[in-house]
Design goal:
disordered N terminus, globular, 1030 residues, disordered C terminus
Length: 1030
């Protein structure tokens, strides 16, 4: 039986590949199977019975229905109805055609015919075809010993009746590995009347070459004219992407999609193409195209496999009469090692293909050998149902890996926009700084993925690290990755040196994550915390302390720069090699992006995680516990929303997140690890529902949030867990600030384009952005879970992080006033622009609740939350527009903010724009008189006469101020402003001293005792008087 198995498989594959779509399968014997699934070369009218059987048209109906359909098609298209998918085109152009041809049929026959047309998108294409992308190059390498690798001819001879190819750019590797003339030579002389040929234009040169000329060149290379009984040769001509490209594989925003589609329609009109299709479109793009086209697409080809599901797109296409074709159905081989696709009677590849076929989606897998082709074709004949598998938290898109910079213009985020009478491709993805990795880092991620792919499902941590070390020692091209360095716990307790990890038989390795100081003396807080964490973990796991090895950064990363970089690159491998993971919970630990990244890596393979809560210096108060499922949910947060002490760490964090995604794909669907028992209290559907809920909140998608919340409730997730997830999103949004870097760059350009003014005020921007452009419309607000969010919540997490400073300012300021104030303050504070995230009401408050909803006046609870917000942030930056007649001191909100900051003892930094600051310093240089003029001008504060934008705000704040005492408020704010002027004077005086290089410090001070010699010395004479005045 084993000896005969290859022959049976080949015979079975050949017969099975010739049949109907699996949606019409019946349980038949071997002889019936071979007879019913033999290849057909006849057109519709030559053998209508076979044609009807393929579509599932009842036997009693087709003799009357098919001739009528064929006659109508001939009248409209000028050619015979030869292939099933052409009925989709006819149905698109005549939606009521069934009513016309079924008038004389019985009610039951009409019902069966209607059902047949509804299922037509699932039956009109052969179930399995052959994708020819790089098939010659991949197959030649795999079949090096074979004298002739002819995959197209071999597949055709064994029953394949659908081939997908594209017109490659002239010259280069793609043209060699996707040789159109070779495809034509292998199909030449064969009967193609029952075969579906799918082609796509050259997506690189389409913008400079005419589509018709390019198509005719492709036909010339193919040289298949006359080999098919009816023309045209190409059955489906498909738009490869919803955009055009230029030579360097970059997006071409000038590409007119509607113009390209009209050129494709002309090919149908000229009889060169039967039907049209699209590839990689989003639902919005498909809707837009259908609304403007004359000839609708009949097929949509997109990435669809168990790791990248798009069930919504499948259902949508089938509902509007468009057939679905899955590209990359095996995820470039990633599915082959999935434990969910291990069936008795099918290979993993057949299971994965069958998963698509069960949903009515045809597949076009590639192949590197003849046996692959046979196995793929045989997948259509199996009647075994493939059970569904858990859904990944994040999809594994091979298209995204191939086109990382272009993916946002297709799939879910791609959109079409109208401009100048044409349709152009754009994206709905929130724009922000690119997190794309450099090529060398991408190579490292691939290397780590290669290493992980060699691990087995039965491997424990010990086996994993032994295999990893062995691979690193034997493979020279993994030189950017280092072996793991650990230190024994007893040696670490005595501050010993780390030793290199070998096989470590019997040892247990603990990874310690912390955010502590790295001082290296005996009573160091970090050292004591790590030692206690390790000892508690050893006690918890019942492991002797002398068998515990530690990985802790301030010991194991203490090497030269090259070795440190290699160790950092290898962090993901190190973490998955550990037996345990302990977080030392100190204030601010969970807010750190680096700590969140380490936790993400640990969770890829569900390493048991524990926490040592060391919130004070008193060790007696420290507690140690193993994290349960609800604790794990609470401690998971995306690193992009965390903080870093050094912005240079962000590229490292992004690389490690890419590593985490690579590991997660292998772990969840590969051969690495079984699900951890730490999640045993939650079933997979509950865990997946919570992940969808978090994702919907992060993406601000209201529809997805409603669906995910309902799914959580339906699958039994406790309400308190759902509430905690929502509260996390609320806290993240409510405490966030906007990046100053974003204000200086992207927002400045946006403001000028939106208003058409070089220096607009924020009142102008409010009208344009919130009332006209309606920024935030349709997005979920994570604070009240309603539609309509703040400007801040529309930004990416790169530009939205925990606020570091509160900005007190006035909406009447111009854009230049705000940016100049912030720039001067940054220069004086010494802070880096990437480290500062400011809370500004324009961006952070939900203007949908204030400006747009008429029931809200704007004062609904702003003052109630202000004190808490200011306390949480801890620092205020006050933007003064002028010093001689400032608007700042005439607004009631700024007076109230200043008084609240004084009352809460909050540190306040005043700042001026560049020009007013220069005039201020000139007046201070004039001595006592100038100082007096400045104080008299800038310290005029009168809360009673101050104004607010909303009268309700003004009345309410003034009532509060009257409770405090108007004079007391005025005096306190005046005193704060005068203190700032004194600091400016003092800084100006010290600057004068620094610039006095001719006169010594002693002579300057001596001369200051006898002033009035020049303006610089006049400043010195009044220093004492100024301080006394303050």
């Amino acid at each position: 039986a084993l000896w005969l198995k290859p022959f049976f498989r080949r015979a079975h594959s050949t017969c099975a590949a010739m049949g109907c779509h699996p949606s019409t399968e019946r349980s038949v014997g071997p002889k019936q199977t071979a007879r019913a699934q033999r290849p057909t070369s006849e057109c519709c009218m030559d053998n209508p019975a076979v044609f009807a059987a393929q579509l599932g048209i009842p036997k009693k109906v087709w003799p009357r229905v098919l001739p009528a359909l064929a006659n109508i098609y001939r009248q409209r298209m000028g050619r015979t109805l030869d292939k099933p998918f052409e009925l989709l085109l006819l149905h698109h152009q005549m939606p009521n055609i069934l009513d016309e041809i079924s008038k004389d049929l019985s009610t039951e026959a009409r019902r069966e015919l209607k059902l047949c047309m509804q299922l037509l998108p699932q039956r009109c294409l052969p179930p399995v075809g052959l994708g020819t992308f790089n098939v010659f190059a991949d197959g030649s390498r795999a079949n090096a010993s074979s004298s002739r690798w002819a995959p197209i001819a071999f597949a055709y001879d064994h029953g394949c009746r659908m081939f997908d190819f594209f017109d490659p750019p002239d010259g280069g590797v793609l043209a060699v590995e996707n040789d159109i003339s070779r495809i034509g030579s292998e199909l030449r002389g064969k009967d193609l009347s029952g075969t579906v040929l799918i082609s796509k234009p050259d997506f690189l040169s389409l913008s400079r070459k005419g589509l018709r000329a390019q198509f005719l060149d492709m036909l010339t290379k193919l040289s298949l004219q006359g080999t098919q009984r009816g023309k045209p040769v190409i059955d489906l001509y498909m738009m490869h992407f919803p955009y055009l490209l230029i030579e360097n594989m970059e997006f071409a925003p000038e590409g007119e999609i509607d113009t390209v589609w009209k050129e494709m329609e002309k090919l149908v009109d000229a009889g060169l193409v039967r039907c049209l299709g699209v590839c990689n479109f989003s639902q919005q793009q498909l809707d837009k195209l259908i609304s403007i086209c004359r000839i609708r697409p009949v097929v949509h080809q997109f990435e669809h496999h168990p790791f990248c599901r798009n069930r919504e797109m499948v259902e949508y296409c089938q509902s509007i009469g468009i057939a679905c074709l899955a590209s990359i159905p095996l995820a470039k081989g990633s599915v082959l090692s999935s434990k969910y696709f291990r069936q008795k009677h099918m290979t993993p590849a057949q299971c994965a293909l069958r998963w698509n076929l069960q949903q009515g989606v045809s597949v076009i897998p590639g192949a590197t050998s003849e046996s692959h082709i046979l196995d793929n074709l045989a997948s259509a004949s199996f009647s075994h149902a493939i059970p569904d598998m858990p859904v990944l938290a994040s999809t594994v898109s091979k298209m995204q890996e191939t086109f990382p910079n272009l993916y946002k213009y297709m799939a879910c985020d791609g959109i079409f926009v109208q401009s100048n009478g044409h349709m152009y491709c754009s994206t709905a993805a929130t724009e922000g700084p690119s997190e794309a990795l450099p090529k060398e880092k991408e190579q490292i991620v691939r290397q780590i993925g290669d290493i992980v792919s060699r691990l087995q499902i039965a491997d424990g941590p010990q086996e994993r690290r032994v295999k990893i070390c062995r691979m690193l020692r034997t493979k020279e091209h993994w030189r950017d990755i280092s072996e793991m360095l650990v230190i024994p716990l007893p040696e670490f307790a005595a501050f010993g040196r780390p030793q290199q990890l070998h096989n470590c038989i019997g040892a247990r390795i603990l990874y310690v994550s912390h955010h502590l100081a790295t001082r290296r003396h005996a009573d160091d807080h970090a050292h004591r915390a790590v030692v206690m964490a390790a000892r508690r973990w050893a006690e918890h796991c019942a492991v002797p302390e002398d068998e515990v090895m530690l990985w802790v950064d301030f010991v194991c990363l203490e090497h030269d720069d090259d070795e440190r970089e290699r160790t950092t690159n290898s962090l993901g491998l190190h973490i998955i090699s550990c037996d345990g993971f302990v977080s030392i919970d100190t204030p601010g630990y969970w807010d750190q992006a680096w700590a969140r990244m380490e936790v993400s890596l640990a969770d890829t393979i569900d390493i048991p995680r524990c926490v040592l809560r060391a919130t004070s210096d008193a060790e007696a108060t420290w507690s140690f516990e193993a994290l349960e499922v609800d604790d794990l949910l609470r401690t998971r947060a995306h690193p992009s929303t965390g903080t870093v002490e050094d912005v240079a760490k962000w590229p490292i964090i992004h690389m490690q997140l890419a590593v985490a995604r690579a590991i997660q794909g292998r772990v969840a669907y590969g051969d690495m690890a079984e699900p951890s028992a730490v999640l045993e209290d939650f079933n997979p559907s509950q865990v997946q529902s919570l992940r969808h809920l978090r994702k919907a909140l992060a993406e601000r998608s209201h529809g997805a949030f409603v669906a995910a919340r309902s799914a959580c409730s339906d699958c039994g997730v406790p309400p308190e867990i759902i509430c905690e997830v929502e509260q996390e999103a609320l806290a993240e949004s409510d405490g966030a600030g906007i990046s100053i870097d974003y204000i200086f760059s992207t927002f400045a350009t946006l403001a000028q384009e939106a208003t058409g003014k070089l220096d607009p005020t924020f009142k102008d921007l409010s009208d344009e952005l919130f009332l006209t452009k309606r920024v935030g419309e349709g997005l979920l607000c994570p604070r009240d879970l309603k539609v309509g969010c703040s400007f801040l919540d529309t930004l990416t997490s790169r530009n939205r992080r925990k606020a570091t400073h509160f900005v007190s300012w006035v909406w009447g300021y111009t854009l230049h006033t705000v940016t100049s104030c912030l720039q001067r303050w940054l220069e004086s504070s010494g802070l880096a622009v990437g480290e500062v995230f400011v809370y500004m009401c324009f961006f952070c408050n939900n203007q949908w609740r204030i400006l747009i909803e008429p029931s809200t006046s704007g004062c609904c609870d702003l003052e109630v939350r202000f004190a808490k917000r200011l306390t949480d942030i801890g620092t205020m930056v006050a933007l003064m527009d002028e010093w001689h007649d400032p608007v700042y001191t005439k607004r009631i909100w700024t007076i109230f903010e200043q008084y609240t900051a004084i009352k809460l003892n909050i540190n306040v930094h005043f700042t001026l724009p560049e020009c007013p600051a220069r005039t201020l310093h000139k007046h201070l240089d004039q001595g006592k008189d100038g100082f007096g003029k400045v104080i008299a001008a800038i310290a005029k504060v009168d809360a009673e006469s101050a104004k607010a934008t909303f009268q309700a705000d003004e009345d309410k704040v003034k009532r509060m101020i009257r409770e405090f005492g108007v004079e007391a408020v005025n005096d306190a704010v005046q005193h704060s402003i005068v203190e700032w002027v004194g600091k400016e004077f003092k800084a100006n005086f010290h600057d004068l001293l620094r610039r006095s290089s001719v006169v010594s410090r002693g002579s300057i001070l001596d001369d200051a005792m006898t002033p009035r010699r020049n303006s610089e010395l006049d400043s010195g004479t009044i220093l004492g008087d100024a301080i006394m005045h303050l």
